[in-house]
């Protein structure tokens, strides 16, 4: 384990945090970040500050952090069963060599991605997408019932060819040959990065209401507002950036006549502790259901208010600073 940790610390854009027997606090001890690391250090220290009152109870350890908003630890589909089996047998063996690259190397041999590997879209230099291509679907209109299932690229191949996280790396990198944890700000179902609670932009409930959050009855602007921006994939001639979800969202909504206005766009998250249609409204990566969902909730304001209220209540009850501290400590 120590050898694997040392190798991980040598990888590009990694910051190492350590707690030693002689120090009660976690400290940044090394980094491979190119350029000025101060912004990255601030991000990491904001996370570590969550456990500043209880970190003395944790044992000495070294942790690798990535400060970027994308995961790094692509899992070979064999690696978890391999380690579970060795654990049952009480043995240690080196993982078999990895010779192939690509996102689908994280998918089981029986998955749709393996049976019918998706073709990457062409670079966007000379490509203009039609309205149908922007939707990127020919299936009947539907709505999401199980959000987590729709996030599996092995079964929903559309993610690999329409999401910026995957398109930015073309067919994908080599998978990792170990399960050594790396703390990252996000992950997909193909990765084994460890997600710490991220306090960026966090405000207390009282502060938000005092500064900018209006009561529901005063929120009269009916425009669609999705957080984020068109980042995640360089708009370069050699990349299929027009097919990426964020760029498509802007193009798609600009192509619709009517009152639908985009202020910014949505990112790809892995929601595991909040429920779709209870705390938030899930939308397909194709956006085929976007307009219908918006039209529905414009005429069913009571349901929209219920979802917004329950989402806010969940945050108030389970996303306090002490909740984040307990999660990170565990």
UniProtKB/TrEMBL annotation:
Annotated SMART domains: CAP10
Domain called Glycosyl transferase CAP10: residue spans: 151-330
Lineage: Eukaryota, Fungi, Dikarya, Basidiomycota, Agaricomycotina
Designated name of the protein: Glycosyltransferase family 90 protein
Transmembrane domains' residue ranges: none
Source organism (scientific name): Scleroderma citrinum Foug A
This protein's UniProt keywords: Transferase
Claim: Transferase is one of the keywords in the record: yes
Pfam families documented for this protein: Glyco_transf_90 (PF05686)
Single annotated GO MF: transferase activity
């Amino acid at each position: 384990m120590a050898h694997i940790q040392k190798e991980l610390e040598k990888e590009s854009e990694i910051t190492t945090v350590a707690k030693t027997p002689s120090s009660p606090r976690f400290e940044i001890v090394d980094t491979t970040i190119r350029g000025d690391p101060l912004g990255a250090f601030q991000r990491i220290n904001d996370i570590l500050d969550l456990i500043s009152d209880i970190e003395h109870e944790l044992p000495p350890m070294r942790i690798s952090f990535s400060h970027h908003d994308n995961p790094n630890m692509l899992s070979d589909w064999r690696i978890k069963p391999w380690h579970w089996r060795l654990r049952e047998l009480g043995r240690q063996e080196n993982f078999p060599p990895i010779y192939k690259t690509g996102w689908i190397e994280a998918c089981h041999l029986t998955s749709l991605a393996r049976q019918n590997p998706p073709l990457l879209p062409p670079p966007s230099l000379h490509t203009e997408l039609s309205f149908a291509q922007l939707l990127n679907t020919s299936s009947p209109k539907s709505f999401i019932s199980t959000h987590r299932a729709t996030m599996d690229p092995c079964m929903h191949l559309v993610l690999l060819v329409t999401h910026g996280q995957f398109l930015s790396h073309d067919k994908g990198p080599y998978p990792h040959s170990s399960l050594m944890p790396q703390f990252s700000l996000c992950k997909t179902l193909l990765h084994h990065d460890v997600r710490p609670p991220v306090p960026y932009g966090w405000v207390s409930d009282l502060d938000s209401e005092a500064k900018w959050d209006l009561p529901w009855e005063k929120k009269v602007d009916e425009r669609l507002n999705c957080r984020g921006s068109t980042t995640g994939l360089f708009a370069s001639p050699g990349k299929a950036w027009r097919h990426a979800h964020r760029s498509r969202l802007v193009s798609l909504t600009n192509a619709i006549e009517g009152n639908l206005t985009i202020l910014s766009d949505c990112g790809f998250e892995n929601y595991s502790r909040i429920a779709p249609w209870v705390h938030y409204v899930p939308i397909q990566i194709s956006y085929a259901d976007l307009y219908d969902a918006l039209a529905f909730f414009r005429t069913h304001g009571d349901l929209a208010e219920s979802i917004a209220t329950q989402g806010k209540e969940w945050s108030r009850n389970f996303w306090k600073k002490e909740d984040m501290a307990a999660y990170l400590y565990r």
